[in-house]
Structure formats: structure tokens, C-alpha cells
Design goal:
- Helix content is 71%, strand content 7%.
- The protein is mainly alpha-helical.
- It has a 3-stranded antiparallel beta sheet.
- The longest helix has 34 residues.
- The two termini are 20 Å apart.
């Protein structure tokens, strides 16, 4: 029998034990390396198709949807997100348990903690949906997955910043202060990049100007990279925690 949280350590036999820092780094590196590999592959081998626009103006960078929609790029991306998504659900639950312990006597923050869990799960589910349904296969489904991912990501970041603002007011740990500051910075950077990407996407569709879709792609990359960096702040939140997979020794009866 495998358990992620074990109460009686005397009966546990650890099979795998890693620091949460290593766990967080590995979780974020999966989509990061996958995305970079897809972008480089698209530029080297599928440049014309990946940078094509509906109005046929000059474009120099592929959007993420375009970069992950062809073979072998889509297989690279799907493999990385498939491995990335399960730990992300685990981290969402870990954060909820952390908040529940911190805000046991504060109903508003407990409610926000529940919302943070819901939006985190929805964000990850939207990412899985847009990953496994490419824009070239079912555009509407892919688009809705992207909308769920972006909207839930922003809401999750906003609620998380609020919760950590409350934590910062009542606790004086240097790691917690650093975590809050970086979360706030990355949230504002992310929402600014979202606004810029939306502006250039709308402008491209309306005016079809040369290079505008390239600017949209640049800000889309920044949205995704800053999202990854935001989740990487778990480095400070769970720095001394270990992730353990263990088997519980069953009592034998003869």
C-alpha cells in the first residue's frame, strides 16, 4: 500500500524520498524544456508552417499553439505535460493543507484557500486539455482549454497573493517575505503580459500588420514563462519539506 502522507513513521519504509525543492524544480523544468524544444524544432524544421498567418503577412515567431501542434513537437509537449500534470495536482492539495493549517481560525481566508485549490486544479486541467487537443485537431476545444488555463491561472495568482499578503503580516520568516514579494511581482508581470498579448492579437486580426503577430508570440511566451516562475516560488514555501513515497508494513497473522 502506497501513501503520500503517513502518520505513523515507525511503521513506514520509505521507497522514495526527495526534497520539495528538487521536486519543484523538476516539475517546472518539464514544461520549460518541453516548450523550448518545441519552439526550436518549429523554427528549424517547420518555420514556414509554424509562422504562417491567416492574412499572410510577415511573421517571425510561432505562437505556442502553432509550435505544439505538429509532429514531433506535439509528442514532446504532451509527454512533458503528462509528467508535469500529476505533481501539479499534488502541489495544489499540499498548498490547500498548508493554508488550512495557517488559517484554521479565519473563515474568509479558509474560503479563499478553497477557491485557490479549485482554480489551481482548473488551471492544470485547462493546460492538459489544450495540450492533448491541438489547435489543428479541434480549434474550439483547444481555444476553450486555453481560456480556462489563462483565466484560472490569473485568479489563482490573485488569490494566492492575497493569502500570502495575510501571511506576511502575521509571520516574520524571511522565506515567507521573499515568497510573497516574488509572487506579487510575477503576478503583475504576468497580467501585464496577458494584456499586451491580447492587444497585439486583436490588432493583428483587425489590421494584419507586419510583425504584430510576432509581438503577440513574444508576450505569449512571457505569460507562460512567468506562470512557471510563479509556481516555482514553492521553492520558498516548502523549502524544508520532503516528498516521500512509502509502504506501510502490514501486521502479519499466521
Amino acid at each position: 500500500m502506497f501513501q503520500g502522507l503517513l502518520s505513523d513513521r515507525d511503521r513506514d519504509r520509505p521507497l522514495i524520498r526527495v526534497s520539495f525543492t528538487s521536486f519543484a524544480v523538476a516539475t517546472v523544468l518539464l514544461p520549460l524544456t518541453g516548450l523550448l524544444a518545441c519552439l526550436v524544432t518549429s523554427l528549424l524544421y517547420h518555420y514556414e508552417d509554424a509562422t504562417y498567418t491567416h492574412c499572410q503577412v510577415s511573421n517571425y515567431l510561432p505562437s505556442i499553439s502553432s509550435a505544439i501542434s505538429r509532429a514531433p513537437e506535439r509528442y514532446i509537449w504532451r509527454s512533458c505535460i503528462g509528467l508535469h500534470s500529476a505533481p501539479r495536482y499534488l502541489v495544489a492539495v499540499a498548498y490547500f493543507n498548508f493554508y488550512r493549517g495557517r488559517f484554521a481560525a479565519s473563515l474568509p481566508e479558509l474560503l479563499l484557500s478553497g477557491l485557490a485549490l479549485i482554480f489551481s486544479v482548473a488551471e492544470n486541467t485547462g493546460l492538459v486539455l489544450l495540450t492533448y487537443v491541438a489547435s489543428t485537431e479541434a480549434y474550439k476545444v483547444h481555444k476553450y482549454g486555453f481560456i480556462v488555463f489563462i483565466s484560472c491561472s490569473l485568479l489563482h495568482m490573485l488569490i494566492t497573493c492575497r493569502l500570502w499578503y495575510v501571511i506576511k503580516r502575521h509571520y516574520v520568516s524571511p522565506e515567507e517575505k521573499t515568497s510573497f514579494l516574488w509572487k506579487a511581482r510575477l503576478f503583475f508581470f504576468n497580467i501585464s503580459c496577458c494584456a499586451a498579448a491580447a492587444y497585439f492579437f486583436r490588432r493583428h486580426n483587425k489590421y494584419c500588420e507586419t510583425g504584430v503577430y510576432t509581438l503577440f508570440a513574444v508576450f505569449e511566451y512571457l505569460v507562460v514563462f512567468s506562470n512557471m516562475a510563479f509556481h516555482m516560488t514553492a521553492f520558498w514555501d516548502f523549502g524544508s519539506t520532503q516528498v516521500m513515497v512509502a509502504t506501510v508494513t502490514e501486521d502479519k497473522r499466521y
